[in-house]
Specification:
By secondary structure, the chain is of the alpha/beta class. Helices cover 37% and strands 26% of the residues. InterPro entries: ABC_AA/LPS_Transport, ABC_transporter-like_ATP-bd, ABC_transptr_urea_ATP-bd_UrtD, BCA_ABC_TP_C, P-loop_NTPase.
């Protein structure tokens, strides 16, 4: 069984804030077809890792290789987004007054540019893409509803849909199940599995039950460094992990 292709690879990444090393020599490889969780105690450097991957923070040293050849470490945030690295922030980005469908259409337009609305054939293509996305995120039945009136879980799925409709190769999510009910959490886990087909999904997460249930691979950070990486079973069996993180 060949290992899946590495799409994004961070090598010896260091990020400093006024001389303080929030991330200190981290390595991380994201492979296709894998829901990869990044976990660790508060202040470990997880959010900074997401920031560095999407260009919001700049590494003091190290490389970020996309598809084995493009170094992202010196690229701007919008260039990185265009290359296909999509980040969902915790702050909401949906337009409450627009319908679910309109929100998806807007996000698609943003990616394709204004010309896509001018040609009839493209319009049909777009409509089909929106239809498919509604079905992926399970919002087909509420497609005409105002986004502001959705439940918390539905809003999160819409945001994930708005990201996915731009067809990113890498999806970065920050605590996607925070505030969700158990049923919504379960659905989100299944959604993450579906969307990891042919792409990389990296999730920063605190909900360990959720990680246990849905993790393909787990990377644990501690004080800016890699503590351990492996499957959930491997990670849970590790004594250092138990000591610094699981509090045993
Ligand atoms: P985590 O997401 O694992 O909780 P963060 O990446 O948010 O950790 O933070 C790692 C460390 O870097 C923390 O000590 C935090 O205080 C510090 N830090 C993060 N962002 C900044 C910033 N913009 N300026 C100064 N310090 C920061």
């Amino acid at each position: 069984w060949p290992a899946e292709e590495v799409v994004l690879s961070l090598e010896k990444i260091t990020v400093e804030f006024d001389g303080f090393r929030a991330v200190n020599g981290m390595d991380l490889s994201l492979r296709k077809n894998e829901v990869h969780f990044l976990i660790g105690p508060n202040g470990a450097g997880k959010t900074t890792m997401l920031d560095v991957m999407c260009g919001k923070a700049r590494p003091a040293s190290g490389r970020i290789l996309f598809r084995d050849r493009i170094d992202l470490s010196k690229k701007k945030e919008h260039q990185i987004a265009q290359l296909g690295i999509g980040r969902k922030f915790q702050a909401p980005s949906i337009f409450s007054e627009l319908t679910v469908e309109e929100n998806l259409a807007l996000s698609l337009q943003k990616k394709k540019g204004v010309f896509s609305v001018l040609f009839a054939r493209r319009k049909e293509e777009d409509a089909r893409a929106i239809e498919r996305m509604l079905s992926t995120i399970g919002l087909g039945e509420v497609s005409g509803r105002r986004a502001g009136g959705l439940s918390h879980g539905q809003k999160q799925w819409l945001e994930i849909g708005m990201l996915l409709i731009q067809e990113p190769a890498v999806v970065l999510l920050d605590e996607p199940v925070a505030g969700m009910t158990d049923a919504e959490t379960e659905k989100t886990g299944e959604l993450l599995r579906r969307i990891s087909v042919d792409r990389c999904v990296l999730v920063v997460e605190h909900d360990m039950e959720f990680v246990r249930q849905f993790a393909g691979k787990v990377t644990i950070m501690h004080e800016g460094k890699l503590l351990m990486e492996g499957t959930m079973d491997e990670v849970q069996a590790d004594a250092r992990v138990a000591e610094v993180y699981l509090g045993k």
